[in-house]
Amino acid sequence: MRCRLYGASLLAIAVACSARGQVAPSHGIEEVVVTAQKRSEKLQKVPMSVQVLDGKKLEQLQITEFQDYIKYLPSVTAQTLGPNQTTIYMRGISSGDNANHSGPLPTVGTYFDEFPTTTIGGNLDIHIYDTARIEALPGPQGTLFGASSESGTLRVISNPPNPSKFEAGYELQGNSVEHGGLGGVAEGFVNIPITDKIAVRLVGFDQHDAGFIDNIPGTRSFDLATETGTVTTGSVNNAAYAKKGYNPYDSFGGRGAIRFELPDDWTVTPSVILQDQHANGAFFYAPSEGKLDVQQFGPDTYQDKWVQAGVTVQGKVGDFDLTYAGGYFVRDDISKADYTDYTIQYESYGSGANWLNSNGQILPRPQQEIYGKDHFTKESNELRIASPQSDRLRFIFGLFQEIQTHRILQDYQIAGFDPYYAVPGWANTIWLTDQLRTDRDEALFGELSYDILPNLTLLAGVRPYWYDNSLKGFFGYSANYDALTGFFPGMGPDSSRCLAGQSYADDPCVDLNKTVSGSGETHKINLTYKIDSQRLVYFTYSTGYRPGGINRNAAYPPYQADSLTNYELGFKSTWLDQRLLFNVALYNEDWTNFQYSFLGANSLTVIENAPAANIKGAEIESQVRATDDLTFTAGATLTDAKLTENYCGSTDAGALISTCTGSFANGNDGAAAGTQLPYTPSFKGNVTARYTFDIMDWSAFVEGSGVLQTRTQVGLRDADKLSLGSMPSYGIADFSAGVSRDRLSFSIFVKNAFNALGQENRFVACGSCSTVYVYPVQPLTVGFKLAQRF
Known about the structure:
By secondary structure, this protein is mainly beta.
């Protein structure tokens, strides 16, 4: 007989069912094993806040990509510029960086298995299938994960090869998007034991997402401001690009790993994962044009190809566990973007006076397009040793080394542009950025734990680090066009702006070659008290950092490393024979000397160290297995993230201005103390209910989820908030239902069931542009999924 109590609270249901003797430990909430501390541990035994979506949860929530799972990680928010162009934030550690290629490193580190994959300009949107779990580790992870894990770490962990049995499966999905078209996913995996000590695991997928933004027909004129008045030089229409469902997205790829089990408990696991992702059109709309409508006048395309290869070696040296992880990562992005807004805006200022053709006549269509290429590489090596987890005094020590390179090419073109004004050697190019960025990191790390009493443990950790970052190449106009950057007028490559005797790629000269180095330490102290086998409390003091870097604008000095100090008090517990789980973490974080990037003079990105911010908050997680068939899961984060000092901007020499002038409300370039940090909702939470039952010989389920996020700001400076506005609160509801039998399952699902027009980002095309664009959440999506396991 099933236990059912209608009209009762969740806790009352669980208590009553337990009293009736129908709750057995084996029917409680399933335990999850994580590696948040680089050891395999049960989640409820780890004295830190960890938000986890395990493999079963990923399947139940119909998760295939980043935008699917970020909803269910309450401490994680993001600033998106489209697929694979998303900057991740945790616990409100965000200054609203413009995510520029020459900007600061991210504050959140990302990993695939043992390998770091953090890059500027967007996290990897790893396809989620045959995935063991996703771990979000909010708070500084500087001791074990180092640079760019200042505010937290996000890890995607795959299922490893298994020599003990053959496994295989496939999933087919079809869906329809409101205001768009049809999409679908085909994916499959196979695990093949070759011997009882060797196994191969292969995964492949192909995904198509329908577009839902309409590029509506339109015409724009080019009105050139002159000394005698305004002259209309011509116009442009978008007939060649106007279409419904302007932004389809396609992604395909796979991964493979082979596991060798060697004598004496040693294993070697080479692995590789690759993806090729194509996006067409714009993933934003202009509210001034209409709901999910935009007017784009040139090509908007984006291709992201990347490969992560690595090898993990694990074994025993005496009683100690030794792990080596070495990885090599390559990523290539190729993009084309319409830049008509910029052209039209700056013509009205008279900035287009030199937009001439080869006959000296003003171009009828001085329309700009941006052609971009980014080539990333990353080499990483980590070696660590850990003593037995059962020892009273235990440790983990390691070494880490990483070198990242980023070849940056941004080619701003105008068709028919006069070669006299073009960047030398680059036809039709009005502005060129061609640079090589190199970031080097080295570190030692260690954590030492001691059981003062059987139920009281003290942990102390430290990570000394060293970094060396450089930026070299060319950026700017030609000598004949403008003196602000690039060459001096008429002086050519021998001018003082160009560095004598230096060259890079096929640049006309090298006008940038800077290096910055630094070192420091991060620390961690944790005290854990186990109340009993099901409950513990902990206190943590921890710090994180981001390396300093280069300002390519010569007027600004290098920016320095910033740091985050975290004080955290947590409680983790299970109750009622593991029918009820409740965890809470309270934190107070000080973000000092934080790196802030923005568009300065001549629309060049500037990075400076702003004063300080304080972030207070709470993370709450609960699960209730009310009956054997009814489960509730909920999570929430409450955040109060604010500046603690006035931010007044900086001088041309890069020095912070100590006293703000003018009214912040009137668009001052600074921000007052008490300003809310951008992309940080005061509340983000989710709740899921799942009910299982039998239909004849089939197992069935129904499930519903709700996500709520409150209002967020887009910019830090008051001028940005005036021009961009804020993103309102929104809620999303997802539903699914399905049946399964004999490892065959069929389900239907509805995402964003009430078609909420939530906003994920807002931007303008240039510093003086007035049209605000919005990145929305995906509209109502209805679909089905067929899956089978063997």
